[in-house]
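Q: Give me the 3D complex with nicotinamide-adenine-dinucleotide.
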Amino acid sequence: MDDGEDALQQCLRSGVAFVVTGGARGLGLAMAEALVEAGGKVYCLDRLPSPDDEYQRALERVVPEWGGSLQYKQLDVNDTAALNRLMEDIAAENEGIQGVIAAAGIQQLTPAIDYTAEDVNKMLQTNYTGVFMTAQAAARQMFKYKNRGSICFVASMSGTIANKGLLSAAYNSSKAAVIQLSRNLAMEWSSVKENGEGGIRVNSLSPGHIVTPMVLKNFEEVPGLRETWSQANMMGRLAETSEFKGAALFLMSNASTFMTGSNLIIDGGHTAW
Ligand SMILES: NC(=O)c1ccc[n+]([C@@H]2O[C@H](COP(=O)([O-])OP(=O)(O)OC[C@H]3O[C@@H](n4cnc5c(N)ncnc54)[C@H](O)[C@@H]3O)[C@@H](O)[C@H]2O)c1
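A: Here is the predicted complex, encoded as structure tokens.
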């Protein structure tokens, strides 16, 4: 941060590049929108061939005066070579990458007794290895361009607790792994080395239950789940994706320059009682 410069005033510098995986819809898209509104040049990466209708509506809301933009790139985070190529291209176009939100994730509800090794591996591949490789591919570019970047892993409160009655052993463990990963990467990348590399902050975000396409599918699979989850936190309701926009801005901007290796829990009090 420059001397005398207010952290919040220079929250996001206009035109700086951000990458959001899982940005075709849901939570990733809402967090991407927050960065665009603050002037960020945001690349939404997702395995879907084309983004959700929700993305088109977000695109229509982008005002040129903000100085930001929203772009969609199809990418499966499990394709590490393609991930590295795309990060390299984005960095080359923008003199680096300022921030990454890794929100791409999958969920599967299956009793632990029936889980196949193949399904466990699939879950960990996307929710853990995909997140790790996303951070690595971005950090390589941040090192190269000497960006003091910020990386946020979208974990979950499910990485800290078992959700009462929800048969999601592999998902919850994958989120616990991501919370721990952020601590280790923060340890390796946060300080600025003699050669000028580093200064990359790494944190995780642990949301409670939010209404997104992923969760609407859970509601279809488990009758009564919407009501159970609504009553399971202190607010007595589910979250909207827009309630995480502030967290995206906070974690990606100079508002959080001394925060690294942390896990930000925003769950309506779910894990607090
Ligand atoms: N909805 C919730 O209640 C909740 C709570 C806590 C954490 N989360 C986490 O938030 C993140 C976003 O979830 P959401 O609820 O918006 O779900 P969602 O299913 O609506 O969005 C997830 C996105 O990730 C993409 N994706 C999945 N696998 C991918 C891959 N291999 N490569 C690229 N993209 C891939 C999907 O296509 C989808 O667009 C996930 O990591 C999820 O675990 C969600």
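A quick observation: The chain has a mean pLDDT of 94.
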